[in-house]
Amino acid sequence: MDDSTDSLKPKYRRVVLKLSGESFGHAGGKSGISIDETLNIASQIKRIHDRGVQLGVVIGAGNILRGSQFSAGGSVIKEASAHYMGMLATILNGVALQESLESLNVQTRLQSAIRMEMIAEPYIRRRAIRHLEKGRVVIMAGGTGNPYVTTDTAAALRARELDAEILLKATKVDGVYTDDPMVNPHAIRYERLTHAQVLRDNLQVMDASAIDQCKTGKLPILVFDFKKEGNIERAIAGHSIGTLVE
Question: What is the mean pLDDT of the chain?
Fold first, then answer.
């Protein structure tokens, strides 16, 4: 694969990157925040930022907790409260990413859909756009601030609000398959899909609400393996990696 400077010239001016909480976690699925993994993400983001791309980042918190783990039958914690706990956990990942980026001299702003002014700005669409225009990476945490809404859907909504040209769905697999490639060695990777196909076939790209938002907004989604060194740069340069949904 040609990774020369010219080949990595950004195709997109403004993008939203969706990072799962597991992106920040330790190897082997151990809970918590791995500083090494977070710095690796920050280094990739810095290279994109240095190329002049306006980047918004939406983060999950599965490495710390998922609201669903507290909302199972018989739990004393109500389901809505469990979802709020999950949203609050995204703030922890957001602070870790912000500190990691700023240690690399990348200007950032952490915005939260849940108000907590001592730690983060409130998410305000116009302010977020202004930060992007000034060359700051905008980290968006707290989901949408509402329970029962996934961070995938939050990413789709933010990408539409910020007029992003593409939504990058960073995963640990290299695209969308006909079946689980870890279980079925004969599973085939899709190179391209339509939003309608994903909804019709219930493919595990993002939740249906997120896909529907992107379909309505004609927003393409690229599902790719961000663990492969340089893949975020390749994705933004428009290289043929992962699975493109449009």
Answer: 90
Q: Give every CB contact of residue 123 below 8 A, 6+ residues apart in sequence.
A: 111, 112, 113, 140, 142, 145
Which CATH superfamily hosts domain 14-245?
A: Acetylglutamate kinase-like (3.40.1160.10)
Q: What's phi and psi for 27, nearest 5 deg?
A: -60, 150
The answer for residues whose C-beta is within 8 angstroms of residue 50's C-beta and 6 or more apart is none
* Per-residue pLDDT reduced to its tens digit, 118-130: 999 999 999 999 9
pLDDT, tens digit (0-9, with 9 covering 90-100), for 164-209: 999 999 988 888 988 888 788 888 899 999 999 999 998 888 899 9
Q: State whether the Cα torsion 143-114-160-136 is positive or negative.
A: negative
DSSP per-residue letters across 121-158 = EEP-HHHHHHHHHTTPEEEEESTTSSTT--HHHHHHHH
**Taking the domains of the chain in order of start, what are their residue ranges?**
14-245
Cβ(192)–Cβ(10) below 8 Å = no
Q: Which amino acid is at 5?
A: T
* Tokens at 112, concatenated: 């939260």
The SS3 assignment for 193 reads: strand
Of 30, 104, 23, 27, the residue nearest 58 (C-alpha): 23
> Which ranges constitute the DSSP H helices of the chain?
35-50, 79-103, 125-133, 151-161, 195-201, 208-216, 231-236
Share of the chain above pLDDT 90, in %: 60
- Alpha-carbon gap, residue 102 to 79, rounded angstroms: 36
